[in-house]
Amino acid sequence: MKMLFKPVSGAKQFVQNSEKSSVIGLTIFLVIIQGILGMWKVNQVISTIQSIALDLVQKISNIANLIIPGSSGKMLSTNDIMDLTGEMSKVRSLINIPYGKVFLQNSAVFLCAIITLFIIIYLGTTILSKDKKDPFVVYKASLIVLVPTLYFEIFSILFSYVLFYIGAGVFLIGVIVSLACLTVIIREELFVDENHTVFIIAVSFLGIFIIVSMCMQKFLVSNISDIIMSVTNVMKNVRF
Q: Any stretches that span the bilayer, and where are they (predicted)?
């Protein structure tokens, strides 16, 4: 929790004092959390789609009655909506959502982000600084600066239930906090001058953005294909 309220001092303390066992433990913990967050986001998207579908049916029914009164019988009542929700829930329960696959994919994306950041920082500090940096210290820095993004990602999902744009804004705050922490750590713990630090930060952000985007695009296409195939199979067998 210290990284939430004191991200810079918490990151500096971790880089200075953490041992190998605690670093390995934190890595595993963060990877698991990211995998769980991925499943949570998928479930949130599916619930949102279900709510949109129900709202769309209600609006179509209302419009039909306005254009041709009585053409669709009557406007959907509360009981009708509850029945429709129940039927949609039944169909949803039959659809094979690849949660296990999503968990592994999101865990892999987080590991890729750590590795990418480590490589860029290590190469950047080695090339631009006269002193050779300890790889373990660089890895600790790469790991801990991603914690604020993970914290704010949790809040982002929660706020997304209220409004998507609020959730996106909260996530962006987490990214900015992580970049700020990384800037301080590179300057004060890895002893790189401010001019070189700017270039390392820029390349790090761009590198992670490209790698994560490529992975997420590939995984998203695969998951959507699986879900569409599952929905098709369900629709062939389900009768409302």
A: 21-40, 103-125, 137-158, 164-186, 198-220
Q: Are 174 and 149 in contact (CB under 8 A)?
A: yes
First to last CA, the chain: 49
Q: Assess contact for 157 and 44: CB atoms under 8 A.
A: yes
Is 185 within 8 Å of 9 (Cβ atoms)? Answer: no
Per-domain residue ranges for the chain?
10-45+98-237
Q: Which residues of the chain have pLDDT under 50?
A: 71-74, 240
The 10s digit of each residue's pLDDT in 31-61 is 999 999 998 988 887 777 766 666 666 666 5
Instruction: Give the span between the Cα atoms of 221 and 26, in whole angstroms.
Output: 30
Of 152, 166, 145, give the one whose Cα is nearest residue 208.
145
pLDDT score, position 94: 54
What is the DSSP secondary-structure string of 109-161?
HHHHHHHHHHHHHHHHHHHHSSSPPPHHHHHHHHHHTTHHHHHHHHHHHHHHT
Determine the Cα–Cα distance for residues 41 and 35; give it in Å rounded to an integer. 10
User: How many CB atoms within 10 Å of residue 198?
Assistant: 13
- Look at residue 5 in the predicted model and tell me its pLDDT: 77
Q: Are 140 and 11 spatial neighbours (Cβ–Cβ below 8 Å)?
A: no
Determine the pLDDT at residue 98: 79
